[in-house]
Write a structure and sequence with these properties.
alpha/beta; TIM Barrel; 8-stranded parallel sheet; 14 helices; 42% helix; binds S-adenosylmethionine; binds iron/sulfur cluster; BATS_dom; [FeFe] hydrogenase H-cluster radical SAM maturase HydE; FeFe-hyd_HydE_rSAM; 4Fe-4S
């Protein structure tokens, strides 16, 4: 095993990670200070043609009521995010087979006219022409998580899909000039510390502008519903390692951390994350964007959810920022 890989495995397995966490925090403070960038996520459709074994939106989940927001509702949700101080709007959905590429383009242009706001897309795998078109319409960023680079785990968790194809898409997005993000799910069934260490190093070689890592959270209506959840500690160590390896990348404290423990986001920030991505999807459909238990609470109005999160950030000693939050890695 190469020396670097051995070192990362040792850090994932060490009895105590406090030195790693302190180093990650110091690196984050050195680059971003106590500023936390806010991205409002509009989850505009839960239709999906794919069957990822971990995800509640998978095509095979017949229990999920499906929805698709109209253009006006999407722009309204984005407007709410901007008014609540988010410098970025993220448009996220399942991989719809009937996705209207031109309609998404019109929505991007409308959101860009709301103010000084960046638009991130998280719409899965599409062709070069579509990615290019959305970029021309004003999309700034694209998030496409690798989930894992390991061929066997990838094949098992994402039937019919390959890491090689996904990596090709990540590289394509970089060539098209997007601020590009990718990431991992930690603790997927079959993952070992060696596989995770290799994933962390592979991700760090891609010169990414954004990196998202969150624990696997089992969803009862999926084939992996009886599997164990990813460990919170392992996901925090993965976040800290990514911060040390990628000082200038934007790294979110993911909602999957909050799904495992009430102060999950604060823990993510304490180990090097510098971004939060609250859902700004309207209450009427938010509960149906049900990737995993604990993901979206539809009982609280969007405005209250955001205010509560901003309050949590302040209480933990951070400054919720309204800046677009371009990655210094992208500016360089
Ligand atoms: N469909 C697009 C795609 O797959 O890239 C974008 C939306 S997808 C719902 C967003 C992310 O949700 C995925 O990249 C995956 O990492 C995460 N996700 C889905 N199910 C999950 C689970 N059970 N536990 C943790 N993360 C999960
Ligand atoms: Fe669809 Fe994305 Fe869920 Fe896979 S992770 S089933 S592509 S929404």
């Amino acid at each position: 095993m190469p020396k670097r890989l051995r070192e990362v495995v040792a850090l994932l397995r060490a009895p105590d990670a406090s030195a790693l966490f302190a180093e990650a925090q110091e690196v984050r403070d050195g680059v971003f200070g106590r500023e936390v960038f806010q991205r409002g996520v509009v989850e505009f459709s839960n239709h999906c043609r794919k069957n990822c074994r971990y995800c509640g939106l998978r095509k095979g989940n017949a229990h999920l009521p499906r929805y698709s927001m109209d253009c006006q509702a999407i722009v309204q949700a984005a407007d709410c995010a901007v008014r609540m101080g988010m410098g970025t709007v993220v448009l996220q959905s399942g991989e719809e087979s009937a996705l209207d590429i031109r309609r998404v383009g019109r929505i991007i242009s409308k959101i860009k006219r709301l103010g000084d706001v960046a638009v991130t897309l998280c719409l899965g795998e599409h062709g070069e022409d579509d990615y290019r078109y959305w970029r021309d319409c004003g999309a700034d960023r694209y998030l496409l998580k690798m989930e894992t680079f390991h061929a066997g785990v990838h094949r098992h968790c994402r039937p019919g899909q390959t890491g090689r194809t996904r990596l090709g898409k990540v590289r394509l997005l970089q060539r098209l000039g997007y601020e590009t993000g990718s990431g991992l799910i930690t603790g997927l069934p079959g993952m070992t510390p060696e596989i995770l260490a290799n994933d962390l190093l592979a991700l760090s070689q891609l010169s990414l502008d954004m990196i998202a890592v969150g624990p696997f959270v089992p969803h009862p209506q999926t084939p992996l519903g009886d599997s164990a959840a990813g460990s919170l500690e392992e996901s925090l160590r993965a976040t800290a390692l990514l911060r040390v390896l990628n000082p200038k990348a934007n790294i979110p404290a993911t909602s999957a951390l909050d799904a495992l423990t009430p102060k999950g986001r604060e823990l993510g920030l304490s180990v090097g994350a510098n971004v939060v991505m609250p859902s700004v999807t309207p209450e009427s459909v938010r509960g149906e964007y049900f990737l995993y238990p604990g993901k979206n609470d539809s009982s609280v109005p969007v405005v209250n959810t955001i205010r509560r999160l901003q309050q949590r950030l302040r209480e933990a000693g951070y400054h919720p920022s309204s800046a677009r939050g371009v990655s210094p890695a992208y500016c360089a």
